[in-house]
Design brief:
Layout lengths: L18 H6 L4 E3 L4 H14 L18 H13 L3 E5 L8 H15 L1 E2 L10 E3 L6 H5 L1 E4 L4 E4 L1 H5 L5 E4 L5 E8 L3 E2 L2 E5 H11 L1 H7 L2 E5 L11 E5 L1 E4 L2 E4 L3 H8 L9 H17 L1 E3 L6 E5 L3 E5 L2 E2 L9 E8 L11 H4 L18
Parallel strand pairs: 1-2
Antiparallel strand pairs: 2-16, 3-19, 4-19, 5-6, 7-17, 8-16, 8-19, 9-18, 10-15, 10-17, 11-12, 13-14
Amino acid sequence: MIATMTARHPLTGPSVWNGRDMARSTRSIRAFPATAADALDRALQVAKARGLVWSQLTRDNFAIEGLQGLLDDIRGELEDGSGIVKLTGFPVARWSEDDLRLVYFGLGTHLGTPVFQNRSGELMRAIRDEGAHVGRTYGEVRDPTKGTTFLSSYARTLTNGGLRFHTDRTDVVGLLCVRQARRGGVSRLASTPAIHNALLATRPDLLDVLFEDFWRSRLGEESSDPATVYRLPIFGLRDGKFTSHYSLTFIEAAELVPGVPKITAPQRAAIAALQAAAEDLAFDMTLEPGDLQLINSHVTYHGRTPFEDDFDAGMNRLLLRLWLTMPGNRALPVGHEVLWREIEANRPRGGIIQGGIA
């Protein structure tokens, strides 16, 4: 077995971190300047005077001053640093929810370029518990083996249940906390290059498996038909830059499709090892109202703990999510076009194509 394994080397750099260290570090923390709220207010008033809705905003028609240095710093930390940023002190209580969407989306256009998050063309998604209808609305199939209903990844996001470690189909995910739940809903983050290194040290045979193709289903954000499947490795490397795209839900959904090969024993063992390493290397990030979490999907897994809302107390969890394609993004390996469409560096990519499957 050892003779047939690929020669691999530990990944290096600030994106390789242990959650125990990151939890004690302030490296990823940035404070929103108090004076910047006035700049956003001015841009907001101009946009409203022009009759613009949030989805019409661009960096040209939502001009803001005094934040370029902060945004450049954030972009650098996301692509060449730890891969995560927590921007604290965003004044969410200053604006109505409608105005907050304008301000948040406008700021997002200066950080990157928002991309579609689902086949319905949403550029901003409210992440909250939407109740029992989510499967019917956002995708579910029957698991004939277990006799149970299998929810798509999209549907699971809009429940109050926990979410396993996964990535989204975008360079950067932005989650702005507007309200937090009564309890739970804690964000969990893990470095995927650190997971790579942990497996290289303990199970290099299983690490090799993660660089091989896994079948996935596009059920949920991309398609209402679970039989729309594709193959893609979980890990990839090009020009020294790492990338991972992973959601066990997509893999499990593909297994339910007749004719799609089942996960092999080595693949199952590799996934188990990946998940164990993620749990060991992760840390918890609690988001309070006004916290904006930004994560580079190529080098970070994210998940969350279950949560419990209290509507009477005004503690019903609401996050506003943006998917951003970023200037200066990394090149991706050949073959990853099936997911990203564009794999060359510094090119717009990601998100969900409209009017058909990529």
